[in-house]
Design goal:
The structure holds 3 protein chains of 3 kinds. By secondary structure, chain B is mostly helical. Chain B has 12 helices and no strands. In chain B, helix 6 packs across helix 8. By secondary structure, chain C is mainly α. The chains are: A alpha/beta, B mainly alpha, C mainly alpha.
Chain lengths: 332, 314, 282
């Protein structure tokens, strides 16, 4: 796959947040994203899964430059974007768009749909006024909404329809990449499938690249070519969708998968059933992040290097023990 | 907790300094007090020597600096008019103002709290509308108009109450006498306090009445009275505490006007004449005092808040 | 289309408040009377037109003042002046407050800190002192009172707008604008500002009511609008003399009643607007 160019790349990104001190005058630092490196390839859908709070949304925001990494680099088509001056970045931004989870607050309640779609295109000078009006109609058709609805205000739409409008808005500026931050998590299951199918269709038609963030493995597996599993701000394993699904090696991925067939709501409880304790339990410093919770933890896990090693071609994981097991052929 | 208080105090210091700077700047724009003394009977040499004596020949920021340094030494300066130390002047007039403000505040809240709760409990009933309308009326009457009406009826027509001063001239002023003088100005201020707060307390209580735990309490079969007394009121304390804090600057503003109308010998009267006479040190003294009072009351509000509501982080 | 139903909904909710509807009608009538004073007033407000201090009669329905000017005409003009002062002061403080609040909330950081501590200072200041001192600076008069009141009331607006901006800034539609590379001025004025209009409007009505009261108080004390220009406050000035207070109620009662009516109507309308704009009342 070396010939496939990377569209979006993050290298060793960290994102720290300060939490205002509750008991002291000083603040504490919280690592939302720790040392993540990823390359997103042209035309693929890259899934990121993990429990809520694992830092996947932060990763999404870093990818579209809504936030600047504390350290590390973000590249779009080989150009470094995280330190680009605001004006220059603004011209490049249309190329990487984002769709948010909560479609309700994604649309300005005081604007008609056509204005929501039209204004960014007008600003970026995509065609003349009449061309843009025509494009608004095309976009609505593309996402499966009746063109007559363009005069309406967002509150007149259902959640699924609003998410379609958000997708149309993301498409309006001819992006290369769309980062989808849990785009279907807030929707009914039946509507989820429609939106996922729409996304796949659009990808085929327009040659888009997606980064798909989700906490339900089902949806992520359905749309993704490759998947990364996140835990406590780190990526613990990534590989092709089938690698992760059929041959997960990291104990956390396995636990997550055990929870996959059931509906999302229950996933978290199921995860707990095969792992011990809670996610926010802080591991001993220097140890594997899963040290407290892993059923197969052993003394050697106290010293841990956050290095991805290849398990099979294109399939990487950080857990040494899992790799050894797999090398010996006794996959559990 | 102590750290929280310390932090708040440290944050208040620059605000206080800022207020005094604004005060000084505005006051200096108002014109020199020397203008007030120029007249045929005063020679230019006398004016110049007065200017030098008061330091008015120096640039404004130097004047301010001198004032600030003196304040740190506990000296608020001397009145240009009466040559009295400003601290003494304030000390001798602060009592009546505190008395007036305190009584008005208590009276106002004594009207507002029961009325607000009553109104909330009977929401959307005729009684509720009556109370709310009354509160609008209260906050729409200009203080001076109400004063005139009160003076007309209680003093001029029926001669029930005295209309000016704090005690009958020539007497030492016993409790009853002062109380009689206090009634009218206190009513005027209290009506203002009540007007604004009835609606505030009403909506605070409404918000609490709609919370789930109160529904649970009701569902458990507790009587409405007990629900209100035991649960709602405790939680309504929080907004009430805030209101008291916020009220102080407004109340002081009202006091300035009311003291003027009833010749109540308080700080308002002193302030007014100092403003008219450009008596810088007195104006600055009063401004400093009121700023300190406001900031301290804000601080107390914050602390009370932290005590009443344990979910507030500090 | 949908816009009409949105405003329609707000109008429907507003109309449910009987007192507010009555107030709105009354307020409209009063404003018309005030604005059309030159056409309606039977006499000049500044020139004597009858006997001194005559009680209400057929020629002078509210009597005449101590130099024979028609009180009804004076009140009409006074209401015009008071409304003008209140309206312009509100306009100034709202504009200043909205601008500072927008800037403070959107840019955050040091700008925010500076603006907000200034706001705190002006707020934690018994504003009557500010008004008195400022009134002593400028020549008292209509325009200085407008400027003074305009300067005094903005901090509340600024805080309100800042709070709104802070929460709007976190909405996904603003985030979407950022990822679409839209400029800050677009985000501020086209996305955030329209969403703060409703609360600002409600707040502005209370500022309007307060400004009218403050103008009246200052003019009453002789630091506001100066005679011979009539204002609702300085009309009451004469009542300080005992003979006027007791013997000539037509010289002071009507002006006071007009102030109360105006302020009450504005307050009722503002209260109903608050209810009507509240999305929780769907």
């Amino acid at each position: 796959m070396a010939n496939e160019a990377s569209v979006l790349e993050v290298r060793h990104v960290f994102k720290d947040y300060r939490i205002a001190g509750e008991k002291t005058l000083f603040s504490q630092t919280f690592h939302a994203v720790e040392d993540i490196s990823l390359e997103i390839r042209q035309g693929e859908t890259f899934g990121v899964v993990g429990e809520s709070g694992c830092g996947k949304s932060t990763l999404a925001r870093l990818m579209v430059c809504l936030e600047k990494p504390t350290s590390g680099e973000v590249y779009f088509q080989g150009t470094r974007v995280d330190q680009m001056p605001e004006g220059q970045l603004r011209r490049l931004r249309p190329k990487f768009q984002m769709v948010f989870q909560d479609s309700g607050s994604s649309l300005n309640p005081r604007k008609r749909v056509q204005d929501i779609l039209r204004e960014p295109m007008l600003y970026h000078g995509i065609g003349k006024r009449t061309q843009i009006d025509q494009r608004v109609d095309e976009l609505l058709e593309m996402v499966g909404l009746p063109v007559e609805m363009k005069d309406r205000y967002p509150h007149a739409f259902s959640g699924g329809q609003r998410q379609r409008i958000c997708i149309a808005r993301a498409l309006s500026l001819n992006p290369e990449v769309i980062v989808l931050d849990e785009p279907v998590s807030a929707l009914d299951v039946s509507v989820q499938a429609q939106i996922l199918n729409l996304l796949r269709e659009l990808q085929k038609k327009l040659g888009l690249t997606y980064v798909f963030i989700g906490h339900g493995l089902g949806a992520v597996h359905y749309v993704s070519h490759r998947i990364a599993v996140m835990y406590l701000g780190r990526i613990v394993e990534y590989g092709t969708s089938d690698d992760i699904f059929d041959h997960p090696v990291h104990p956390y991925s396995k636990a997550l998968l055990d929870a996959a067939p059931v509906a999302d709501l229950h996933a978290r409880d199921r995860v707990r059933s095969s792992l011990k304790g809670e996610m926010d339990e802080t591991p001993p410093s220097g140890a594997c992040p899963l040290f407290n919770r892993c059923p197969n933890a052993r003394p050697a896990c106290r010293t841990f290097e956050n290095i991805m090693r290849e398990v099979s071609p294109g399939h990487f994981a950080v857990c040494d023990r899992a790799r050894e097991e797999r090398a010996c052929g006794n996959i559990s | 907790m102590w750290k929280y208080i310390l932090k708040k105090i440290l944050l208040a210091v620059p605000v206080l300094l800022g207020i005094t700077i604004i005060d000084y700047a505005i006051m200096s724009l108002a014109g020199s007090p020397l203008d007030m003394m120029v007249g045929p009977r005063i020679s230019e040499a006398a004016v110049a020597s007065r200017a030098a004596q008061w330091g008015l020949d120096q640039p404004v920021y130097v004047q301010y600096w001198h004032w600030l340094v003196e304040v740190f030494h506990g000296n608020l300066g001397y009145s240009y008019k009466s040559y009295q130390p400003v601290a003494d002047l304030i000390r001798s007039h602060v009592g009546p103002t505190l008395l007036l403000m305190g009584v008005s505040m208590i009276l106002g809240l004594l009207i507002a709290i029961p009325a607000g709760i009553y109104s909330a409990v009977h929401r959307y009933e005729k009684r509720d509308y009556a109370v709310v309308s009354a509160s609008f009326l209260f906050s729409s009457i200009p203080g001076f108009f109400l004063s005139l009406i009160l003076i007309y009826f209680l003093n001029v027509r029926f001669g029930l109450l005295p209309s000016s001063g704090m005690m009958t001239a020539g007497t030492g002023g016993d409790f009853a006498d002062i109380a009689r003088h206090l009634i009218m100005p206190a009513i005027v201020l209290a009506v203002g306090v009540a007007g604004g707060n009835i609606r505030y307390i009403r909506s605070a209580v409404l918000e609490i009445l709609e919370m789930d735990y109160l529904r649970t309490a009701k569902a458990k079969g507790m009587g409405r009275r007990i629900v209100i007394r035991k649960h709602a009121f405790r939680n309504a304390l929080l907004p009430i505490v805030t209101v008291i804090g916020m009220q102080i600057p407004t109340l002081f503003g009202g006091a300035v006007i009311v003291e003027q109308l009833f010749s109540w010998p308080g700080l308002g009267l002193v302030t007014m004449s100092a403003v008219m006479g450009r008596d810088y040190p007195v104006i600055m003294g009063v401004c400093l005092l009121s700023a300190v009072v406001v900031l301290v009351s804000n601080l107390l509000t914050d602390i009370l808040y932290a005590i009443v509501d344990p979910t507030i982080k500090y | 289309m949908k816009n009409k139903t949105q405003t329609g909904m707000i109008a429907r909710r507003f109309l449910k408040h009987k007192m507010a509807v009555i107030s709105l009608v009354l307020l409209t009538v009063l404003v018309f009377l005030a604005v059309l004073a030159p056409l309606i007033a039977p006499y000049s407000p500044t020139k004597p037109s009858g006997k001194f201090s005559s009680p209400p009669s057929e020629e002078h329905i509210l009597g005449t003042d101590k130099i024979g000017r028609d009180m009804f005409s004076r009140i009409l003009y006074a209401a015009q002046v008071s409304l003008e002062v209140g309206f312009l002061a509100t306009l100034i403080s709202t504009a200043v407050g909205v601008l500072l609040g927008l800037v403070s909330g959107y840019f955050g950081g040091a700008v925010d800190k500076a603006i907000m501590s200034f706001t705190d200072m002006v707020m934690s200041f018994p504003y009557i002192l500010l008004v008195l001192v400022a009134a002593a600076i400028f020549q008292p008069g209509k325009w200085s009172i407008i400027l003074i009141l305009g300067f005094v009331d903005w901090p509340g607006v600024a805080r309100l707008v800042r709070g709104n901006v802070l929460s709007l800034r976190e909405t996904n539609f603003v985030k979407s604008d950022i990822t679409s590379g839209m400029p800050k001025r677009y985000i501020l004025f086209s996305e955030i500002l329209p969403n703060t209009i409703a609360p600002v409007l409600v707040y502005a009505t209370s500022v309007f009511a307060l400004s009218i009261l403050d103008e009246a108080a200052l003019s009453y004390l002789g630091m506001g609008v100066q005679p011979p220009t009539p204002s609702l406050g300085n009309l009451l000035n004469g009542a300080e003399s005992l003979s006027v207070l007791t013997g000539k109620p037509w010289l002071w009662v009507p002006a006071g009643v007009v102030i109360i009516l105006l302020v009450m109507c504005i307050n009722f309308v503002g209260d109903a607007l608050r209810d009507a704009f509240d999305p929780r009342n769907e």
